[in-house]
Design goal:
Layout lengths: L7 E3 L2 E4 L2 E4 L13 E5 L8 E6 L4 E7 L2 E6 L5 E6 L4 E5 L4 E5 L6 E6 L8 E2 L2 H10 L1
Antiparallel strand pairs: 1-9, 2-3, 4-11, 5-10, 5-12, 6-9, 6-11, 7-8, 7-10
The structure holds thymidine-5'-diphosphate.
The site of thymidine-5'-diphosphate has 7 residues, from strand 4 and strand 5.
């Protein structure tokens, strides 16, 4: 559960004259079974998303179209900004990492593969509360 565990994952992809095809298999290209996918799209220019951390959820985030930035924060003064723009690259985000998403291009679509079904109880949406939880680890 450290920033260093949040890594870029190069996904298998095939490109020929017909276009590109990339794929992700649960348990192979991510270390979890994929229970849910969701995607952010038609994001107004200048808008930000995220603004939370998860207690147990693991995710792979892919810029399936366009580009955006993800700011990761471990709650211990360490931050890292990752720019995604390649649909064959995913960012693995482990539990207990605060994330903000910003700088969405007009055509951005953010695909998220998640290890669990949606559960509001798994969220920290308050940064101070997240910091206190990190201190208890
Ligand atoms: P949220 O996780 O805050 O989105 P973002 O990370 O883009 O800021 O979710 C926004 C709303 O959507 C919130 O009311 C919960 C709901 N939601 C679901 O019902 N199911 C889901 O799988 C997700 C990700 C969100």
């Amino acid at each position: 559960m450290a920033l260093s565990d949040c890594v870029l994952v190069k996904l298998p992809h095939l490109i020929d004259h017909r276009g590109g095809l990339a794929f992700v298999e649960g348990g192979r290209h991510v270390d979890f079974s994929i229970k849910r996918i969701y995607y952010l799209y038609q994001i107004p220019q200048g808008e930000t998303r995220g603004g939370h951390a998860h207690k147990a959820l693991r995710q792979l985030i892919i810029a399936i179209s366009g580009s955006f930035a993800i700011i990761l924060d471990d709650g211990r003064e360490q931050k890292k900004t990752i720019h995604l723009s390649d649909p064959s690259v995913g960012l693995y985000v482990c539990p207990m990492i605060w994330r903000d998403l910003a700088l969405f291009s007009e055509d951005a679509v953010c695909l998220v593969l998640a290890s669990e079904h949606y559960d509001e109880a798994d969220y920290y949406r308050n940064y101070a509360e997240f910091r206190r939880a990190v201190d208890r680890i």
